[in-house]
Design goal:
It comes from Thiobacillus denitrificans. The chain has 373 residues and is an alpha/beta fold. The protein is built from 12 helices and 15 strands. 35% of the residues lie in helices and 24% in strands. The chain has a 7-stranded mixed β-sheet, with helices on both faces. It has a 6-stranded mixed β-sheet with strand order 1-2-6-5-4-3.
């Protein structure tokens, strides 16, 4: 169902299509705003749930968004008594921050042009994210800036040292910026070079690494249309189209393989937006789905590689005992494990509210075999 946002302008009721890839509902209260509004007034209205439809200079709107963000970030953090409480406070604060910043809106014409002074040309970026424009619409400036940033990442790509090349993520598809987990897949001893399954391929980066390592045929699966399109484009650009097949599937494709790889979302919590589904796995559904189906899809003597961070353990969201019990319940044995420490900036950022957990984090590649095979 197409949602609309409504407002009053020149004593007339007006409306337009509401765009929100995060799934945020259209704001109920919308007022017009332009260069005359102060950052304090804009922050107060946004905090109260009143959206501001911008009619002024586009670059001034970007500056106003930054000013609102600074006011949000000045608010003191809640003191947490435990890691899981710190995690919950952190998510609440992020969610509230996103809601408040999402109250600054900009209009888009049917061709994705922005009818504001000094506006950027965002037609190509919006077409990549949204498809055909069709009708005028309204979007939060915060989301639009994310669309623009994603377009730049898609053009330039992300350098993946383990691949010796670049991966080009699409809008809404999680980027492989944390290279340590890719490095594990590049280093682990291959049980076979005949066939591999890559479950939940995303950008296709792990399927590409396996093919570059000499696996003759890789079947990469995903359910998300954006991920499927992204993986196919990356595989084609890397010249691996004849060796990697990207197929739509709920976890496993048909058949068995001597190697099955999966890098599921690492944190068992609810995702607040589509892009967060690459990070949060409610009730560990994908993790348990992979583990419980692995034995039935492994060839005799084959291995399943589970790439998983232990951040959830340090946050109190999952215990190591629960993970090992899930292996056992699925009829799996652990035959080896490769570990690495994350190198991303937040791991060493003492100001991060989850710093203690991030500093202790280890990412592992668990080598699993089916029991009695």
């Amino acid at each position: 169902m197409v949602s609309e946002v409504s407002w009053t302008e020149v004593d007339e009721s007006r409306s337009a299509r509401w765009r929100a890839e995060s799934g945020a509902p259209a704001p109920k209260r919308v007022v017009l705003a332009d260069d005359r509004i102060t950052a304090d007034a804009a922050y107060r209205l946004a905090s109260e749930g009143t959206a501001l439809l911008w009619r002024g200079d586009f670059q001034n709107a970007r500056q106003l968004l930054q000013a609102i963000a600074r006011r949000i970030d000045r608010k003191p953090r809640k003191a947490a008594a435990s890691p899981i409480e710190a995690f919950n406070f952190h998510r609440q604060a992020k969610s509230q921050r996103a809601r408040t910043l999402g109250m600054l809106l900009v209009p888009l014409e049917a061709d994705f042009s922005i009818p504001l002074r000094r506006a950027l040309n965002v037609k190509e970026a919006c077409a990549e994210a949204y498809g055909e424009g069709e009708v005028p619409s309204v979007v939060s400036l915060r989301e639009l800036l994310g669309v623009i940033g994603s377009h730049e990442w898609r053009k330039t790509g992300v350098d993946v040292p383990a691949l010796g090349d670049r991966i080009h993520p699409h809008y809404g598809v999680f980027s492989p910026v944390r290279g340590e987990y890719v490095g594990l897949v590049a280093e682990a001893p291959l049980p076979s070079s005949k066939l591999a399954f890559d479950i939940g391929t995303g950008t296709g980066v792990l399927a590409a690494v396996l093919a570059k390592r000499g696996v003759k045929h890789v079947i990469a699966t995903d359910q998300d249309p954006r991920a499927l399109a992204c993986a196919r484009q990356n595989i084609a650009r890397l010249g691996l189209k004849g060796r990697v097949d990207v197929v739509e599937a709920d976890l496993f494709p048909q058949g068995r393989a001597p190697l099955i790889v999966c890098n599921p979302p690492w944190l068992p919590a609810r995702a607040n937006s589509p892009i967060e589904r690459a990070i949060y796995d409610p009730e560990s559904r994908m993790l348990l789905g992979f583990l419980n189906g692995l034995a039935a899809h492994l060839e005799p003597g084959g291995e399943g590689w589970l790439i998983l961070s232990d951040l959830a353990e340090h946050l109190g969201l999952r215990s190591r005992e629960a993970l090992l019990a899930a292996f056992d319940a699925a009829g799996l044995n652990v035959v080896g494990r490769l570990d690495t420490k994350p190198t991303h900036p937040r791991a060493s950022d003492a100001a991060d509210p989850l710093h203690a957990a991030r500093a202790a984090e280890v990412t592992s590649l668990w080598r699993l075999t089916a029991r009695n095979l």
